[in-house]
Structures are given as C-alpha cells and as structure tokens.
Design goal:
The chain is 38% helix and 18% strand. The protein is an alpha/beta fold and 328 residues long. The radius of gyration is 19 Å and the shape is globular. Bound molecules: uridine-5'-diphosphate (UDP). Uridine-5'-diphosphate (UDP) binds at residues 171, 189-191, 194, 206-209, 220, 222, 260, 283, 286.
Length: 328
C-alpha cells in the first residue's frame, strides 16, 4: 500500500466512483471538491472531505503533506459547447488549475499523478478507431484545455521525479450497479442521461442529432464505457505507477461503437417503454464516429472490463435516475 491519495472532483460522477474503489482497496483518500457540479452524498464513506477549489493553491499546499504519494485529478469543466462560448473559463479551470495542482504536487514530493483526459483531444479523426498514436487535433477549447494539461504532465515528468497516466475517456455512462451513485449533473447534454430523463418523465422528448451521417444507420457512433470499468482503470493505473511503471497516455474505451439509435433501442428493451425521440439536425461540432483502439490499456494495466454491455450500461443509468428522483 502506498501513501495518501488526493482525489480532486471526488464528489463528481467519475471521481466518486473511483474514490469508492480506492477506499474499498484500503487506501487513505482525501476528496477535494467545490461541489459546483458534484454532490456531497456521492463521496464514499471512509474518505476525508475538504470542501474547496482546486484553484486555491494555498489550500492545495496545506493538504499535500509528505505522506501523499498520488493525486487523481478529476475536477474540471466538461461541456464542449460551453467551452466554445466561454473558452477562458475552460482554460482557467482545466488548464491553469491543473498547472497549479501539478506544481504543488511536485513541490510536495508527490510521486504519481492520474489525469482525466478525453477523446476530445483527437477531434475528428475519421471512421477508423483512434490509437494513442493518432495525432491529437482537438476541435474545441475543451479538448485543447485537456491536451495542454497532458503536455504539462509530459514535460514535468521528464524534468522531475513524477510519473503520470493520462486516461483519455471515451463516452462514459452508467452507474454503480449497487445503486450507491450515478450521474447528478443538472443541465445534462449527454445522450444516455437525456434519454433516461425522457423515460422517467422529466422531459417530454429528446432529439436525435442527425440521421444523415455516413454510419450504418445514419446516426452518430460512439464508444460507450461503463463508469465502474473506467473507475477500475484509474485504480489499476495507480497500481501500475506504484509498481514503477513509466508514464503513459491511454485510451479508455471498449473499442466498440454504438449508434444513437442503438442506444435508444437498448433503453427501450430494458425498460419496456418507448423513448419519445424526434429526429433533428446535426449538432454543431459533432463528428460521425469516435471509437477507441483500446488494446494498450488492457495489455499494460491488465484492465478487463466487466460491464462491456450496452444494455447493462443503460439499465444501470436508468435504475440510478429512477432512484435519484424517487421512482425506484
Ligand atoms: N446525441 C443525440 N441527442 C442528444 C444528445 C446526444 O443524438 O440529445 C448524440 C450526439 O450527436 C452523439 C452521441 O449522441 O452522436 C453522443 O453524444 P454525447 O453528447 O452523449 O457525447 P459526445 O460524444 O458529444 O461527447
């Protein structure tokens, strides 16, 4: 077992699922979250909680005592269209705040850093699965704000005694199958979250953003990955670094694409209800297909997904939403 672990954004969707697994594995975890998009109730029992902002360098320096050996950095903004409308707040929150955190971690002698990166660093890569060697070409300030942090980590690891893993998430969805936590964000823009809001009567309908793409059924194709598998990838990445593994950038997807229509059909099967989905125009900035080439993470970390099943992903998302709004 290593030292203490700081989890920024540990009251959020992916951070809280990961914090739970770290606590379950016997780690001492400190969650730092400003609760802007997270929820105190998602923080696992057994983790310490500091309510504060990851941009607060004095607070970071206070928290990061020499008994910390790792930082897992989830805190950040993540809505692509918002990043187009307000790029500077994305560069502040995702890039400047990461700079402050990396610098404080290095000064405190923290050895390992795990970073929430994104498939948005690739941009429109065409229809082939994207490998970690596909040149990044982010199409949004969001993707660029994350890519710059990857570069800061690369350069810092070359100069200092720090190793890191940047995990490039594909489309994360689903919820803890035991019902302890799931997605809580208010103004959701993600397909599965929106579709379950329709199914649970919180929205009248949803819109399929374009059915004229060059894909098998004309709708957009993405690589949906269950949040617990993603959380497990973080735990394995930390084990890997603690065992002396060198720094890596790794795709985190299943390597399998599902279309918007396939996602909706899976939800209709597991719920036995019809999703009221209208077809509308393409959403600006969307690309036809984004699927991971995902063999490197399996080979390096021994990561073996347990929830690689679209019906299971949408069912856990729906079960959580029902529970969250008191229908479950
Ligand atoms: N999508 C859709 N309707 C919605 C939200 C999303 O048709 O209300 C589509 C979107 O065009 C894309 C896929 O669902 O093809 C996944 O979009 P999401 O916003 O969940 O994730 P992204 O891939 O944009 O990060």
């Amino acid at each position: 077992m290593g030292g203490k672990i700081l989890v920024t954004g540990g009251a959020g969707y992916i951070g809280s699922h990961t914090a739970q697994l770290l606590v379950d594995a016997g780690n001492e975890v400190v969650v730092l979250d400003n609760l802007s998009n997270g929820d105190r109730a998602l923080i696992p029992d057994g983790a310490a909680f500091v309510e504060g902002d990851v941009g607060d360098r004095a607070l970071l320096a206070e928290i990061l005592s020499p008994d910390f050996d790792a930082v897992l950095h989830f805190a950040g903004y993540l809505v692509v269209p918002d990043s187009v409308a307000d790029p500077l707040s994305y560069y502040r929150n995702n890039t400047l705040n990461s700079h402050g955190l990396i610098e404080t971690a290095v000064n405190a002698g923290v050895k390992h850093f795990i970073f929430s990166s994104t498939a948005a660093t690739y941009g429109d890569a065409g229809t082939e699965p994207v490998t970690e060697d596909t040149p990044p070409n982010p199409a949004s300030p969001y993707g660029r704000s994350k890519l710059i942090t990857e570069w800061m980590l690369r350069d810092t690891a070359a100069a200092h005694d720090l190793t890191y893993v940047a995990l490039r998430y594909f489309n994360v969805a689903g919820a803890d199958p035991t019902g302890r936590r799931g997605q809580v964000s208010k103004n959701a823009t993600h397909l599965i979250k929106l579709a379950v809001e329709v199914l649970t009567g919180q929205r009248d309908h949803m819109t399929i953003f374009g059915d004229d793409y060059n894909t098998p059924d004309g709708t957009g194709v993405r690589d949906y990955i269950h949040v617990v598998d993603l959380a497990d990838a973080h735990v394995r990445a930390l084990d890997y670094l603690r065992r002396g593994g060198d720094s890596q950038v790794l795709n985190c997807g299943y390597g399998k694409g599902s279309s918007v229509k396939q996602v909706i059909a899976a939800l209709e099967r597991v719920s036995n209800q019809k999703v009221n989905a209208l077809t509308g125009p393409r959403r600006p900035g969307d690309v036809a297909e984004v699927v991971a080439e995902a063999s490197r993470i399996r080979g390096l970390l021994g990561w073996q997904p347990r929830y690689d099943d679209l019906e299971l992903i949408v069912k856990t998302a729906l079960d959580w939403e029902r529970k969250r709004i008191g229908q479950g």
